[in-house]
Amino acid sequence: xxxxxxxxTGSVPLHGDIACVTYKVVVNSKQKPDTxxxxxx
Length: 41
Known about the structure:
mainly alpha
């Protein structure tokens, strides 16, 4: 699943775990603003 995220990021060379977390944070931040603020801490 992490490999799929890395492929989706394309030109952004990120580690599997980092890409997966970044992807989740971006999706959550768009759907739920509270989640983005909560992950900042």
